[in-house]
Specification:
By secondary structure, this protein is α/β, with parallel strands linked by helices. It contains eleven helices and 15 strands. The structure holds iron/sulfur cluster (2 copies).
């Protein structure tokens, strides 16, 4: 069954970048060292920040990210701390290399999901985007995690570079043992915002023609498929998660954003000071969330307007949804 998953207004979600270092150099990597720093957070700081964001939250979820979070030798301790503090769910986003024997140091009961990433159905395409050998290492990592009883998901970030292989992912994932498949849309930030001869963002016609159909086929395998809505008709409501949801994108240099599209700029609305989030002064992302424009998402119009289209009177043909608005098709056989 397909449903639109609006942002949860009753839970707090931490997207916690505990370091920015990574063993890969993916060509669309969104990490921007100039903006996000290059330090690795010590476990004491990770624990303090987990505690401060969980305080008073009815339910809190954490996704540990990097860089590559398994490069952090104290990731197992961070997971234990999060469990002890009472986080509702704990997820690790990994490129699949699973450093520091992470699977041997954590228990399947302590990690809700390991999320892996592939960006092509073939080694050729995936490795061209994510680096030589990354396809095999990711598939091997998934198989190992599944065999040890961990719940796993797979993320495929769609751009004009790889949308042509998305449908071929259906047979690839059929035998992997994953429970969820996330289709993401490329964000024009980090490396993707650099000089690119080719337009990366997918046209609305291609998105509608390909994405829901692939998600449906994945669901028929018994795997829950999720994809961002991206395009809204004029009669569909627009809502900005920055105004109504408790999402925090935390970086090791102390910046805390409420919107991932802002991450290439010093527009963060909070900054960690003495282990507490403090509001930043001046113009920041929170001022942009208040603006209402016919194109929908304000940050989309500012940083990645190539996905917009206008009629001859200059009226937008559709709106762009908040990047956090998703469609979900439950897995059924
Ligand atoms: S695995 Fe993630 S953090 Fe590492 S280079 Fe690729 S996109 Fe960037
Ligand atoms: S993506 Fe757009 S709509 Fe969503 S939080 Fe950011 S500014 Fe708001």
């Amino acid at each position: 069954m397909k449903k639109t998953v609006s942002f949860s207004k009753n839970s707090t979600n931490l997207f916690f970048h505990i370091l920015t270092r990574c063993n890969l150099t993916c060509r669309h990597c969104y990490i921007n060292i100039e903006q996000h720093g290059s330090n690795t957070l010590p476990i004491r700081t990770i624990e303090s920040w987990l505690r401060v964001f969980a305080e008073g939250a009815r339910a809190a979820n954490v996704i540990f990210l990097g860089g590559e979070p398994t490069l952090h030798p104290e990731l197992p301790a961070a997971i234990q701390k999060a469990r002890h503090i009472g986080f509702n769910s704990i997820t690790i986003d990994t490129n699949g290399y699973l450093f520091n024997d992470i699977l041997l140091k954590v228990d399947p009961d302590d990690v809700d999901y390991f999320n892996f990433s592939l960006d092509g159905a073939t080694k050729n395409l995936n490795d061209a985007i994510r680096g030589p050998g990354s396809y095999d290492r990711c598939v091997e990592g998934i198989r190992k995690a599944v065999s040890m009883g961990f719940a796993t998901s797979l993320i495929y970030t769609v751009s004009n570079d790889n949308i042509h292989e998305l449908a071929d992912m259906v047979p690839v994932i059929a035998g992997l043992g994953i429970e969820r498949f996330f289709i993401q849309v490329i964000g024009i930030r980090g490396k993707s915002a650099g000089d690119r001869p080719k337009k990366l963002q997918v046209l609305r016609t291609d998105w509608i023609r390909i994405i829901p159909g692939v998600a449906q086929k994945v669901a028929e395998l018994g795997i829950t498929a999720t994809y961002p809505k991206v395009f809204l008709n004029h009669d569909e409501p627009f809502e900005c998660a920055g105004r109504v949801a408790q999402n925090y994108f935390i970086f090791p240099n102390g910046r805390v954003y409420r919107c991932p599209l802002c991450e290439d700029f010093p527009l963060h609305s909070l900054v960690m000071k003495k282990n507490r989030p403090v509001k930043t002064g001046g113009i920041n992302e929170s001022h942009l969330f208040e603006l209402s424009i016919p194109e929908g998402c304000v940050m989309n119009k500012i940083v990645q307007p190539e996905n917009l289209s206008y009629d001859s009177d200059g009226i937008p043909k559709y709106k762009i949804a908040c990047c956090m608005l998703k469609e979900e098709i439950s897995g059924r056989r």
